[in-house]
Hints:
7 helices; alpha/beta; 231 residues; globular
Amino acid sequence: MKLCGLQKTTLLDFPGHVAATIFLGGCNFRCPFCHNSGLIGNEAESLFSEEEILGFLKKRKGILEGVCITGGEPTLSEDLESFIRKIRDLGYLIKLDTNGYRPEVLKKLASNGLLDYVAMDIKAGRENYPKTAGIRGLRMKDIEESAAFLLQGTIPFEFRTTAVKGIHSLRDFIDIGEWVTGCPNYYLQNYVDSDQVLCPGFQPFSREELNQFLNILKPLIPNAMLRGVED
C-alpha cells in the first residue's frame, strides 16, 4: 500500500463528520482531467508508513470522527481491508472514495461492515465512459455492478460527476439520469484547472451550463445538486 498523502482535518470530505483524508497511490483509470495525476502511476511515492498514519490517528481520537480513504483508486491496494480494520479498531468511521471498477472489493468491504459511507464517481454517460476514464476495453459492466449495489441502499453513499467542457455534453447527463434514477445523493461538480491535471487544457462549464445539466438530472434524481460551485 502506498500512503501518498494525508490531509489532517477536513470538514468537507465526509458529510456530517470532522475527518482526516488519506491518499493512496495507484489507479486503474487515466482520466485526462484527473487533478491527482501524481497518484495514478506506479511511480507514485509513498510518503508515510502505516505506523505513522495510525499513530497520528491515535493522537487525534476524540477530535476526529472519521477517515476518508481516497486516491488514486483505493480498491487496488491488496491490504486495504486490513488497513481499514486497524483504523476502525481506533473507533473511526470510514468513508471510501472509488471509481467503482472493482465491485467485488466494494461488496466485500461493505458486507464485512467496514464502510460507513461511499462516494463513487459517475464519470460520464455510459457510451462516453472509455473516453472519460482514459482506458480502452473498459468493462462497463463492473462500474454498473458497483452502482447497482450502492443503489440497493445497503450503506449510505453518494454519486458525483465532475463536468468538463470538451468531454461532457447534455447527452451524458440524460443517460446518467436514466442510469441512477432515484439516487438519494448526487453531486455535480465543475472542473477546476490546476498544474496537477494529467492532460492540461480543459475548461470548466459556466454556471448557466451546469444548471442546464442539473435541470436534465432533477426529474429523475430530485436530490441532484451542484457542489463547490461559486455563485
